[in-house]
Write a structure and sequence with these properties.
The chain is mainly alpha-helical and 426 residues long. 68% of the residues lie in helices and 1% in strands. It has a two-stranded antiparallel sheet with strand order 1-2. α6 (149-269) runs antiparallel to α7 and α12 (380-395) runs parallel beside α14 (414-424). The longest helix has 121 residues, at 149-269. The two termini are 43 Å apart.
Length: 426
């Protein structure tokens, strides 16, 4: 990696100071503050002296860091310390009543625990006994005072009638108790709502009292911060410009490095060697000699593996036509100047060597150059002769010497002959 300018790339986040200090201080001030803290930590100066330096520097930006240096208190006459916090004087009552409502037991009814039911029970029991005695006395009077089972049964039925009437009162009493339970709950909720309304009114009055003070404080703060931020913005623009230039230079260096590495990889992949590399290209790549040696060995091993794994039926060694058929490869081989016996339609080692001799490092590069070369020329005479020669090359009916003689004796100008030779790959 290329060593970067540490002064230009000062890491503000790793410096000493609070988040506010890193927002406002310049790089130099943060460096100085970090050094001062280190001196205090070593005992060279006191922590009070260090704190005073930080506070004096912060004052230049209009704030204080407080006792521990990590806070933010604006300096000036716009502090809110004189505004007392709001106190809810209804809070205790509200919480108490809300707790009673939330924790209220669900409704249940037990006649034994209902005083009104007890009153009815005492009354009906008393009246039932009296009626039973009256019934028994009346029947005894009619029978001459003689006791009978009929008298006992009749008197008991009279008593049971009163007890049944008492039992009929229970649903009525239960409904009355439920209504009282609901009325009590509604009253509690109404009281809670009243307390909440009183608290809201009190809070609105508080907000009205502090509103004007806050507006004035905000106005004063705005004026102060506008001046401070303008000065700070100028400084930050300078820092941003410096960092942009540094990052731009780094990107250019990284791009040049990536390009050099790509060119070296392509060269070594095309049977090149480290010893043949341009020293300037090596320097720009950032590779060490050990890395270059490893890269050279990698491509050598890769070629050996490809040749060993890519042998196809029919002999002839390793070959790979990529996405092209054998007919197109044969035409490419002829264009590269390979002999008729070598034009087997298989792009192998000999084909790669022929392509490299022409300056092409891969099948794709050679095929692209070939296809561009055989593109029809605007010159009719040139194009016609080119097509005939291509036919001779593909059929092997004429030698290279015969083709050269044909071109030399043609009616083409020297410029046209040069263009034709370029198209043919010579």
């Amino acid at each position: 990696m290329i060593e970067k300018d540490k002064d230009k790339l000062f890491d503000r986040e790793s410096a000493q100071g609070s988040a506010y200090d890193k927002l406002y201080f310049t790089d130099e001030q943060l460096k100085q503050g970090t050094a001062i803290n280190q001196k205090a930590a070593s005992g060279e100066i006191s922590w009070d002296s260090a704190h005073n330096w930080w506070e004096n520097t912060r004052a230049g930006y209009g704030y204080s860091g407080g006792e521990d240096g990590h806070g933010y208190t604006a300096l000036g006459d716009f502090s809110s310390d004189n505004i007392l916090p709001y106190e809810d004087k209804y809070s205790a009552q509200t919480d108490d009543l809300l707790g009673k409502i939330m924790n209220r037991e669900p409704f249940s009814y037990d006649p034994a625990n209902d005083p009104l039911y007890q009153q009815y029970a005492d009354s009906y029991t008393r009246m039932g006994k009296q009626a039973m005695e009256d019934t028994l006395a009346q029947i005894s009077a009619r029978t001459g005072g003689l006791a009978s089972s009929y008298a006992g049964t009749a008197s008991q039925q009279t008593y049971d009638g009163y007890m049944a009437a008492l039992a009929d009162k229970v649903p009525e009493l239960r409904q009355l108790a439920y209504q009282m339970y609901m009325d009590e709950g509604n009253t509690m909720r109404q009281d809670l709502n009243l307390l909440q309304q009183l608290e809201a009114i009190a809070y609105d009055r508080y907000r009205d009292q502090v509103g004007d003070a806050q507006w004035q404080q905000n106005y004063n703060r705005g004026v102060f911060e506008a001046d401070r931020n303008f000065n700070y913005g100028v400084r930050r623009d300078e820092v941003a410009d410096e960092r942009w230039q540094t990052e731009y230079d780094d990107r250019r260096t990284d791009a040049a490095k990536s390009d050099a590495q790509a060119r070296i990889s392509a060269y070594l992949a095309a049977y090149g060697s480290v010893a043949e590399l341009d020293p300037k290209l090596v320097s720009a790549s950032g590779y060490t000699q050990a890395e270059l040696a490893a890269l050279e060995k990698y491509y050598a091993d890769l070629r050996a593996q490809e040749q060993a794994a890519d042998v196809k039926p029919g002999g002839g060694g390793g070959w790979d036509n990529g996405r092209y058929d054998e007919a197109n490869i044969s035409k490419l081989q002829a264009w590269l100047g390979m002999s008729a016996t070598e034009q087997d339609g298989r792009y192998g080692k000999k084909s790669a060597e022929a392509a490299k001799a022409k300056g092409y490092n891969s099948l794709e590069e050679a095929m692209a150059a070939y296809q561009q070369a055989i593109a029809p020329s605007a010159d009719t005479a040139l194009n016609g002769l080119y097509q005939r020669i291509v036919g001779y090359i593909e059929s092997g009916s004429k030698t290279t010497a015969e083709i050269a003689t044909m071109i030399e004796k043609s009616a083409l100008s020297d410029k046209q002959q040069d263009e034709l030779l370029t198209m043919l790959g010579y």
